UniProtKB/TrEMBL annotation:
InterPro entries: Enolpyruvate_Tfrase_dom, Enolpyruvate_Tfrase_sf, EPSP_synthase, EPSP_synthase_CS, RNA3'P_cycl/enolpyr_Trfase_a/b. This is 3-phosphoshikimate 1-carboxyvinyltransferase. It is an enzyme of class 2 (transferase). Keywords: Amino-acid biosynthesis, Aromatic amino acid biosynthesis, Cytoplasm, Transferase. Phosphoenolpyruvate binds at residues 22, 94, 123, 169, 350, 394. Transmembrane segments: none annotated. GO terms for molecular function: 3-phosphoshikimate 1-carboxyvinyltransferase activity. 3-phosphoshikimate binds at residues 22-23, 27, 167, 169, 319, 346. Gene3D superfamilies: Enolpyruvate transferase domain. The active site is at residue 319. It catalyses: 3-phosphoshikimate + phosphoenolpyruvate = 5-O-(1-carboxyvinyl)-3-phosphoshikimate + phosphate. The gene is aroA. It is found in: Cytoplasm.
Amino acid sequence: MSSVFFGPSGRLRGEVTAPPDKSISHRAALLGAMSVEPVRISNYLQAADTISTLNALRAVGALVEQHEDYVVVRGTGLREAREPGGPIDVGNAGTLMRLLPGWLAAQEGRIYVLDGDTSIRRRPVDRIAAPLTLMGAQIEASDDRFPPFVVYGTRLHAITYELPVASAQVKSCVLLAGIGADGTTSVVEPVASRDHTERMLAGAGASVQRDGLTVSVTCTDELDAQSLTVPGDLSSAAFMIAAGVLVRGSRLLVRDVGVNWTRTGFLRILERMGAIAIGALEEPSQEVATTEPVSDIDVAAGPIVGTAVEADEVPLAIDELPLVALLGCFAEGETVVRGAQELRVKESDRIAGVVDGLRGLGASIEATADGFAVTGAGGRGLRGGVIDAGGDHRMAMLGAVAGLASREGVEVVGMEAAAVSYPAFAEDLARLA
Ligand code: S3P
């Protein structure tokens, strides 16, 4: 495990291009594998999670070519995923673990075993097993809840499913299964979550309808995913943006960030905090778009104030909430996040990790069952110290940004975890400093 020290930084200046979006890369490869025609994906994320996806798709029969600037996926078609010789290794990738079974469940008479690393073995799959079972598939999970788990593919039938938790992964799983099921499958969300799957399915010729918080797909024989260029990942860019806001005197341009409105909750939270992080954000819409909007984000450091994040905003900023806690440490007043119990089942328990980690750096922060409350120190900021990433990429990057903005610097234990989503993170940060 590598420990890296991030000392207090002078102002950050210059431009950085956001790394390719992880969520969109997973989905593009998956839809490519489900399609009949080859799909060319430019700017595919070359990181541990999305390489796991390419390998998993190879295991079920897709041909994947890696070129310097793009990836080509030659799919098997909707109903011809092969049965692999052994377990499919999803590595650390929760999105892969929850989306792929949606497709595999519709493979009549075939059996698939999915497994991953020690973190993945702690992440629940009962949330996808429940709807897939209602559709007719059989799922056998360890302790009825965890990987490794077995998917017995079958002829699926359509359902209307009310999601008990707001989760784009579960929604996507049901929609992908719905594409191969008889009839029209609907998913009702408690609150809106990222809609990349809907957009991409519509772009691939599927019939996708949205009515408020209900999204429906109708069975089809063929998908024809479009070749696409993956936009930059707001969830990765968020670390650069937070560093730009927190490190005194900074002025940055973060280029090519995906600004789909279902992803930009963090930028709206920042705006409420009084931070300067400006881009041409997509407006919320009821329409099912087929493309992903992109913008540069202009960031400048400045004083910030506390804010409250409530349940309806949580899925739109879910992976950035640890950064909201960090920003809260530097804000005047209190920052509270509620309705975010999902953070407990991410790559690590991100409520415990954020609260213990930031407290160790001198923060005044309390955990609640579904979030946290931070009492900001305003301009005094954060002392610094040591933080353990606990194998979680976003916790590693959080520690690094905390270090740059702190008074004494932060040693991040397990910095290599960043390679899961943002392999060039440390280099990009060093260039700005
Ligand atoms: C993701 C959805 C979110 C997010 C994860 C990626 C996706 O998870 O935290 O990093 O690509 O659909 P949930 O849907 O479980 O909230």
